[in-house]
């Protein structure tokens, strides 16, 4: 790892230092607004839609988005666009139009708390524990990449970088809670764009513009060639050689199960919308986020593709990978796909812009880790500690628990970062985690929200069985029972988890006692009056502030992008 060094000058270090000081200053400023647990965990439900909307998208612009997607761009090319245009935007629009009214209107403090109100303590406990575990593991991914940047910039050992990076995130979250995270995420969004846009433009100039990139990718037939310039059928990404099965795998596995499972039930994202000042703002939060989300691929995936044809080590890695596999490619070159963005930065960015780009990467990783940590401390404090360990304590007590949980999360993330270090493509790791935790959760939510007969027993049985089935599929793939290249195994595991969860929930629901209909208002669509799901003055708002018209516009745009790049 120390072979890749970013030769920054003093001006680059100055930019990075100023950025860190600003981040800590935001945390200190936000501390003044934290006097109770709701202000610490949910910003007092007082923020406008444009702030929560930018924070919503920035919280997802972490290691997965930036390094993972650039790695996927280098490895697969255009099919990686599916993670945005099939695997994100439609689900974000659905969250804003259909699901946020239930979350916000019920005044729950977390997604697992909604699960407790709908299905009782069994499903709630399973959801809260699995979510908390997932956030620690995913925080480790962001922290690992933070430590990697520090290692390559300063030459520090990885463990020192991990500790320093964790300490910075810990400082501003402990001080200012969710408000500090959200305000920093808005700042980080602009820093990330300012960092990655010049990298993309300079990289394109180096390869001869867009047509030059197309020509170079097409010429590299051994590593994918022209297949990397078409989004469909995306066989290399899905792992299915048959184009029909590949399309089904992407649409159902990624576009429906993994995508809707992540965006509609993941409290990391939903928490930002819950911090909004009213239902309309909460609904607009993911819809506002969907518009920049459509265009993020052009500053994260395209640089990965450029690096794969411009950087000598990565070009060689890709050739050996295609012929002899991952281990041989790493041994021959000393790099992996995860290094794509760093290698491109090293080779094309001048002094000053390199510092800005490094600050942008650090911003992305801190945004991602802070989002994971702030969601973890809320679920741990409200859904685990308050519900099952210490009930009916003063509000100050839970505020202290939240700060202690923040410290614990950052410490544990240091160790979980070492797990992420074992994956050459971090998206493989993340999609596996999402298959374990998000796919069965989405199935449970979907059935529970639209079928009033779904019972509490069915809720926890479906969750446990769905998660275990995803684990079984993963183990079978890892032990050679079957083999799917790319991220096909993750798509299959998610699909199996979803189907197993739905089938078992239906069977168990028909054999057990449902909740009384009178207790389902605000939790089940058919039992909730429309007046409970919208603000009374929504119709008087201008069209650009109304959720449904803006969601329709977003859907039209994302369909157009899918057609243009098909």
UniProtKB/TrEMBL annotation:
<feature type="transmembrane region" description="Helical">
    <location>
        <begin position="42"/>
        <end position="63"/>
    </location>
</feature>
<protein>
    <submittedName>
        <fullName>Na+/galactose cotransporter</fullName>
    </submittedName>
</protein>
<keyword id="KW-0812">Transmembrane</keyword>
<feature type="transmembrane region" description="Helical">
    <location>
        <begin position="353"/>
        <end position="380"/>
    </location>
</feature>
<feature type="transmembrane region" description="Helical">
    <location>
        <begin position="244"/>
        <end position="265"/>
    </location>
</feature>
<comment type="similarity">
    <text>Belongs to the sodium:solute symporter (SSF) (TC 2.A.21) family.</text>
</comment>
<feature type="transmembrane region" description="Helical">
    <location>
        <begin position="13"/>
        <end position="30"/>
    </location>
</feature>
<dbReference type="InterPro" id="IPR038377">
    <property type="entry name" value="Na/Glc_symporter_sf"/>
</dbReference>
<dbReference type="GO" id="GO:0005886">
    <property type="term" value="C:plasma membrane"/>
</dbReference>
<feature type="transmembrane region" description="Helical">
    <location>
        <begin position="548"/>
        <end position="565"/>
    </location>
</feature>
<feature type="transmembrane region" description="Helical">
    <location>
        <begin position="401"/>
        <end position="423"/>
    </location>
</feature>
<feature type="transmembrane region" description="Helical">
    <location>
        <begin position="286"/>
        <end position="311"/>
    </location>
</feature>
<feature type="transmembrane region" description="Helical">
    <location>
        <begin position="156"/>
        <end position="175"/>
    </location>
</feature>
<keyword id="KW-1133">Transmembrane helix</keyword>
<feature type="transmembrane region" description="Helical">
    <location>
        <begin position="429"/>
        <end position="451"/>
    </location>
</feature>
<feature type="transmembrane region" description="Helical">
    <location>
        <begin position="187"/>
        <end position="207"/>
    </location>
</feature>
<feature type="transmembrane region" description="Helical">
    <location>
        <begin position="489"/>
        <end position="511"/>
    </location>
</feature>
<keyword id="KW-0472">Membrane</keyword>
<feature type="transmembrane region" description="Helical">
    <location>
        <begin position="458"/>
        <end position="477"/>
    </location>
</feature>
<feature type="transmembrane region" description="Helical">
    <location>
        <begin position="83"/>
        <end position="104"/>
    </location>
</feature>
<feature type="transmembrane region" description="Helical">
    <location>
        <begin position="125"/>
        <end position="150"/>
    </location>
</feature>
<dbReference type="GO" id="GO:0005412">
    <property type="term" value="F:D-glucose:sodium symporter activity"/>
</dbReference>
<dbReference type="InterPro" id="IPR001734">
    <property type="entry name" value="Na/solute_symporter"/>
</dbReference>
<dbReference type="Pfam" id="PF00474">
    <property type="entry name" value="SSF"/>
</dbReference>
């Amino acid at each position: 790892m120390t072979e890749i060094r970013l030769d920054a000058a003093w001006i680059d270090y100055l930019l990075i230092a100023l950025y860190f000081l600003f981040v800590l200053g935001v945390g200190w400023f936000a501390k003044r607004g934290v006097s109770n647990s709701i202000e610490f965990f949910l910003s007092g439900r007082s923020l406008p839609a444009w702030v929560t909307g930018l924070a919503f998208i920035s919280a997802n612009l972490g290691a997965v988005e930036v390094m993972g997607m650039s790695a996927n761009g280098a490895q697969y090319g255009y099919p990686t666009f599916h993670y945005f245009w099939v695997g994100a935007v439609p689900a974000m629009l659905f969250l804003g139009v259909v699901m946020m009214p239930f979350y916000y209107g019920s005044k729950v403090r977390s997604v697992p708390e909604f699960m407790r109100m709908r299905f009782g303590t069994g499903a709630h406990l399973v959801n809260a524990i699995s979510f908390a575990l997932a956030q620690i593991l995913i925080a480790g991914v962001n922290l690992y990449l933070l430590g990697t940047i520090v290692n390559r910039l300063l030459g520090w050992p990885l463990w020192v970088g991990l500790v320093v990076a964790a300490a910075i995130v810990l400082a501003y979250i402990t001080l200012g809670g969710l408000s500090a995270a959200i305000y920093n995420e808005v700042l980080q969004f602009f820093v990330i764009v300012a960092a990655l846009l010049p990298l993309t433009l300079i990289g394109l100039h180096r390869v001869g513009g867009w047509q030059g990139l197309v020509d170079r990718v097409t010429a590299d037939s051994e590593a994918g060639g022209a297949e990397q310039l078409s989004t469909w059928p995306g066989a290399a990404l899905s792992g299915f050689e048959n184009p029909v099965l590949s399309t089904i795998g992407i649409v159902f596995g990624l576009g429906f199960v993994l995508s809707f499972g992540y965006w509609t039930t993941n409290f990391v994202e939903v928490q930002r919308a819950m911090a909004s000042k009213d239902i309309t703002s909460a609904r607009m939060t993911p819809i506002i986020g969907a518009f920049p989300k459509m265009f993020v691929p052009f500053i994260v995936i395209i640089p990965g593709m450029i690096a794969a044809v411009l950087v000598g080590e990565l070009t060689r890695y890709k050739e050996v990978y295609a012929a002899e596999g991952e281990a041989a490619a790493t041994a021959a070159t000393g790099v992996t796909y995860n290094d794509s963005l760093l290698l491109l930065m090293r080779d094309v960015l001048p002094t000053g812009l390199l510092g800005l780009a490094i600050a942008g990467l650090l911003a992305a990783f801190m945004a991602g880790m802070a989002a994971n940590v702030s969601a973890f401390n809320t679920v741990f404090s409200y859904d685990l500690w308050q519900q099952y360990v210490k009930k009916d304590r003063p509000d100050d007590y839970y505020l202290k628990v939240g700060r202690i949980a923040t410290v614990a999360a950052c410490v544990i993330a240091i160790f979980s970062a070492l797990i992420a270090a074992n994956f050459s493509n971090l998206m493989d790791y993340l999609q596996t985690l999402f298959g374990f935790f998000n796919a069965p959760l989405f199935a449970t939510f979907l059935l529970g929200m639209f079928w009033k007969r779904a019972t509490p027993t069915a809720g926890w049985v479906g969750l446990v069985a769905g998660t275990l089935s995803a684990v079984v599929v993963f183990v079978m793939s890892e032990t050679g029972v079957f083999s799917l290249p790319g991220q096909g195994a993750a798509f299959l595991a998610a699909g199996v988890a979803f189907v197993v969860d739905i089938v078992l929930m239906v069977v168990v629901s028909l054999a057990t006692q449902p909740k009384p209909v009178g207790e389902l208002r605000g939790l089940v669509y058919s039992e909730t009056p429309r007046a409970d799901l919208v603000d009374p003055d929504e119709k008087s708002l201008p069209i650009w502030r109304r959720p449904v018209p803006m969601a329709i516009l977003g859907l039209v745009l994302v369909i157009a992008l899918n057609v243009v790049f098909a």
